[in-house]
Amino acid sequence: MTPLLLxxxxxxxxxxxxxxxxxxxxxxxxxxxxDFAALRWLDALPRPRSKLRFDELVLLALRMLxxxxxxxxxxxxxxxxxxxxxxxILVAPGVEPVAARASAGPEADLRWIAPGFPDIATPxxxxxxxxxxxxxxxxxxxxxxxxxxxxPPVLNGVDAEPLRLTRAVQWQVVKGxxxxxxxxxxxxxxLAVRYAAGGEAPVRYFRAAAAAWRDEPRFEARAGAELPPxxxxxxxxxPGRVPQAVVDWVSAGGTAVLSHAVExxxxxxxxxxxxxxxxxxxxEGGPLGSGRLLRFARPLEPAAMxxxxxxxxxxxxxxxxxxxxxxxxxxxxxxxxxxxxxxPFPLPPRELSAWLGLLIALVFCAERVLASRRRRFAP
Length: 379
Hints:
This protein is α/β, with parallel strands linked by helices. Helices cover 25% and strands 20% of the residues. It is built from eight helices and 20 strands. A seven-stranded mixed beta sheet has the order 10-9-11-13-17-16-15, with helices on both faces. A four-stranded parallel beta sheet has the order 4-3-5-8, covered by helices on one side. The protein has a three-stranded antiparallel beta sheet with strand order 1-2-20. A hairpin with a 2-residue loop joins β16 (281-288) and β17 (291-296). The longest helix has 19 residues, at 353-371. The radius of gyration is 38 Å and the shape is elongated.
C-alpha cells in the first residue's frame, strides 16, 4: 500500500496550530496577589523574570491534535493498492436468490447485477443494463481477485458488444431460474386523419399503410377538426392555416403530420426527414415543444409524389412517425460467456476520509470532556 494526499494544499491549514497556543497563553491560571498588613514593613524584592509556561498540557495537546487532523482531512489522505481480497459473486436478474445461495454457499458474497450492486438479500432488481454493469464491476475490482457471475439460461439486458473483461470469469448458468420478460416492442402507430369536406382522396394511402402494419388497423378518419388522444398520430390534411389548437396539441407532446397545403410556422430547426432517390425532400419536420411536427413537401398524389405507390411506403411512414423498436437485448447465456482480452485498469486510490472523520469525532469528544470538567473551574 502507498499512502498519498489527493489535495496536499489542505495541509496549509496547519498554520491554525498557533490558535490553541495563543488561547492557552491568554487563559492560563493567573496569580492574584493578596496584601498582608505585616508585609508592608518589608523591603520589596526584585521581581523575578516571568517564564513562558503552558498550563493543562493534555488539553493543549488534544486541541492541537484536533486542528492537525482537520488539516489532514482537507488534504484528503488515501492509500493506493488497498483492496478487499474477498471474491464476490455477481448474480444476474432472473436468477432465483434461493438457487444462487444454494449454489454458492451460505457465506458467499452475492450481489445483484444492478446499479450499486446491492446484496442479494434485497428484492430482485428490475431489468438492468447487464453488459455495462459487468464491465464496470470488472474494471473496479483488483486484478488478482477472482470473479464469478451467475446467469439464467436466457440473459436479458445485454448489448451488441461481446463481453471482454480483464480477467477469466467463472460463468455459471443457474438452471431453474425464473423466466424473464422479453423486451417490449415498439407500439404500432395509431393514425387519426382529419380532412376538409371533399378532400378525402389522400386518406386511402394512410388507410392502406395502417392496414399493412397489422391485421387490425388502428386507424380512423373523419372530416372536421376534432383532436384525437395524444397517443395517436394526427394526420392533418385540411388546407389553409392550421388552428392554434392543433399547434398546442403538438406542443403538449403529440405528433402531427401535415399536408403540403397547410399554413403553419415550422419549428426550428426543421430538417429533411425523408428524401426520394433524387435527393428531393418529401417530408420535413422537427421538435415542437414536447412533440413533433412534420409536413409533406409535395401534394399527396402519385403524379407529384410517386413514393405513395411504392411497396415500402408503409414501412417508410412507420419509421417516420413511430419510435424505433429497441435493439435485441436477449441472448442465450452459454453464447455470451465473457473473454479475458482487456488489460487491467489502474485502480483508483481509496480515500480514508470516513475513518479520519471518526477519529476527529473521538478527539473532539475527549477535548470537550477535559475542557468542561468541574475541577478545572475550582477556586
